[in-house]
Design brief:
The structure is a single chain. By secondary structure, the protein is mainly beta. Helix content is about 0%, strand content about 55%. The protein is built from no helices and 31 strands. The strands form seven sheets. A ten-stranded antiparallel sheet has the order 16-17-18-19-20-21-22-23-25-26, with no helix packed on it. The chain has a five-stranded antiparallel sheet with strand order 24-27-28-29-30, with no helix packed on it.
């Protein structure tokens, strides 16, 4: 709920009274107070003496997001930020002038953010940071090499991550949370990346990179067997109900070796692969489910985050935020 206001002037800079406001979509007006109803994007139209202006209003669920924010124009400074879905309470958790892409993850208790980067000008470790800062190493140089894509197990006991052999892929490792101890390699070095645990913590959905093409796979943690899902893409994330996997598909022009495409859903056995939402030029890598499984937070190719309603595929852009990559839901 918020108040809307507007001011108009004529050519002589005299204020013009009598502005009228009208609402459409999932928003309503009571006087000048805007209230949201169903989720979606509404429109407020202001008019006076033939002049018209509009503003879009996003009605979003309650939630908090952590993300990598890109620099402005030609600058190289990158940030790890957190914010509410309505755009309020934006906090800069980490700021680094490294030109790197941070991959982020939020702890199950909503307190700590994990992040990593492969950029050589930034320490090749996994770091943790809370709202108060500063950041500290979670997994340091106990194992050498770049560490990316941290993912919590659903019980909060472990953090899975890539130990990169190069800038594309490597092996899947894990460390105990919150101590950072019991570091172990989970799967052999088969150019794996972006491992996401199943809610029952028995399987991983992950990406195998072959000649820069990303293939989705499911691994059984008890046996170590890995089965292909038969699709190409990136950023697989297991749904809270365990029946679906969301991922960014390599299904738009020139996306086979890139990290953007349409947002799709697939069953863990590789069946019922379908498009949930489309965006031009596509959704970027790094997505996450809400805890209730009703929504997915993603970033469109124009670096603007959006909430996708799983039941309908509706995309609700968050217009007050931009330059966002690699998002996770607290």
């Amino acid at each position: 709920r918020f108040s809307v206001r507007g001011t108009a002037w004529d050519r002589r800079d005299n204020e013009v009274p009598g502005i009228r406001f009208e609402a459409s979509g999932p928003v309503s007006l009571s006087g000048t107070t805007v209230e949201g109803g169903e989720l979606g994007t509404g429109l407020i139209v202001a008019s006076v003496d033939g002049a018209v202006d509009t503003v879009h209003v996003a009605v979003v669920p309650v939630g908090r997001i952590v993300a990598n924010r890109l620099p402005i124009a030609t600058k190289t400074e990158r940030e790890v930020v957190s914010f509410n879905l309505d755009g309020s309470d934006l906090r800069v958790l980490v700021k680094a002038d490294c030109g790197c892409l941070f991959t982020v993850e939020a702890s199950p208790d909503g307190v700590t953010t994990l992040f990593g980067s492969t950029h050589t000008s930034f320490p090749q470790q996994l770091f943790e940071v809370d709202s108060a800062g500063p950041y500290d190493a979670f997994v340091g140089d106990e194992v050498a090499g770049p560490k990316m894509w941290p993912r919590f197990s659903w019980d909060g006991d472990f953090v899975y991550f890539d130990l990169r052999a190069d800038t594309e892929a490597g092996a899947v490792w894990r460390a105990r949370w919150p101590s950072g101890g019991d570091i172990e390699q989970v799967l052999p070095s088969q150019r794996y990346t972006e491992a996401s645990p199943s809610p029952d913590n028995t399987r991983l959905v992950l990406v195998q990179v072959t000649n820069f093409i990303r293939h989705l796979m499911v691994a059984d943690l008890a046996t170590g067997t890995v089965q292909p899902l038969g699709v190409q893409g990136t950023s697989p994330r297991w749904a809270p109900n365990q029946s679906l996997i969301a991922y960014v598909a390599a299904d738009v022009p020139e996306s086979a070796t890139s990290r953007y495409g349409n947002l799709k859903l697939i069953r863990p056995d590789g069946t019922e692969d379908r498009v949930l939402a489309t965006s031009v030029p596509g959704f970027f890598e790094g997505i996450d489910w809400s805890a209730d499984g009703k929504y997915i937070i993603a970033t469109q190719g124009n670096a603007q985050p959006a909430v996708v309603v799983v039941a309908t595929g509706e995309i609700i852009p968050l217009p007050m935020l931009d330059r966002i990559r690699s998002v996770a839901w607290f």
